[in-house]
What does this fold into?
Amino acid sequence: MSPLDLTVDHSPFHRLIGLVLLRAKDGEVEMRLPWQEAFGRSDRSDWYHGGILSALVDIAGDYAVASRLGRWVATIDLRVDYLRPALKGDLVARARAIKVGRTVGVADVELMDEKGAVVAIGRCAYSTSA
Amino acid sequence: MSPLDLTVDHSPFHRLIGLVLLRAKDGEVEMRLPWQEAFGRSDRSDWYHGGILSALVDIAGDYAVASRLGRWVATIDLRVDYLRPALKGDLVARARAIKVGRTVGVADVELMDEKGAVVAIGRCAYSTSA
Amino acid sequence: MSPLDLTVDHSPFHRLIGLVLLRAKDGEVEMRLPWQEAFGRSDRSDWYHGGILSALVDIAGDYAVASRLGRWVATIDLRVDYLRPALKGDLVARARAIKVGRTVGVADVELMDEKGAVVAIGRCAYSTSA
Amino acid sequence: MSPLDLTVDHSPFHRLIGLVLLRAKDGEVEMRLPWQEAFGRSDRSDWYHGGILSALVDIAGDYAVASRLGRWVATIDLRVDYLRPALKGDLVARARAIKVGRTVGVADVELMDEKGAVVAIGRCAYSTSA
It folds into this structure.
């Protein structure tokens, strides 16, 4: 079996948002999302739209489980808690698989702004059955 | 007080994804998301990336609560359940405010594909305090 | 195959809380929880403790999926939103299976007080793989 | 102002389940739930009923936020992920406030069995406005 190709550029959506994979191994993932003006909540603010944050949570959690399982997984459900406004600037996502079972995998995700403050956290369940 | 301007084009992110507001009134919202190739999960599939679905859930729920409250609200947290793969084609989001309290609002969201099948459901909590 | 015995009294926990099954068929469930003083949040209030509400959500959702699947299911995760204080008095739980797939089932639950007001809502994911 | 009385025995529900508070200070909480036969899932198993676990998650998270805020808080919503079956024996809950804001507090909770294995995790949002 060839190992899973843990890169992000095979996905049109990942390319749209310019996602950068920093590392993905053994259930630990780190990604970077460079700021784009198109991510703004409104023309009158410097905040990220929350929609881009929840997308980032989903992706990072998926790679965390996949990096330990050795194949891609489908999201069952996810929860995102927005802890503080995310100001424009690059974001870093850190995800960790906390369970990779026979039918379900669970990952925890933290999104940090450029100063290292956690702006949102996510918890995601994935289907791991083949 | 001028009424809340319930349109979607003030947001760079809404323009990026090409969101169309069909109606938003009294806690009931309907939006349409026309398909773009950039929404694809992978170059080898015709499925939506889940990240775009969770963003749509968040936006539709927000407008549902805002349309009853009369001002914008910030997302506290959200849950998305992915019920079946969303194939390429336009999506419709229907959201309904099920609580608009003094400090918290809650909305339920359904995402439907072109055939009317529900592909994902969301439940979101928003901060309603001024 | 003998049909699943959809009663509630095989469980010590169900007996502890005095749960009454009203109906469970084809993914639709209705249960009643008669009030007990032991369910109180505090000695100085007439409110239910939230913990008993989340338990009721979990049970009702489980029976909804099981009643359609024909076998018991294990909870993957659940979300409960508390919409208003639940005052002492009997509660009714109504649950509905909204997906019963090969690996995952999803149920929606509403908890109503004696006046029919919805006091809490739940959304639960269950593992349906054999 | 007298400090918040962070004990657990003022609640009939806490007394019903025999909850023991080990510590609650500055957003960090530890509780113990001694096993009772009434917590069993079924007469034919040695597993906890999931309903008692979600109740424990809610309580521990609440105390975590309250211990930092200095007053009681009401649960907005919660998520519980069941990671493995909880076998009979005492449980320990560890909760940590990860945000205590002006309107919302968020807590993370872990439930551990007697061997220290994490059987369930919870994430809860509470209303902190006075």
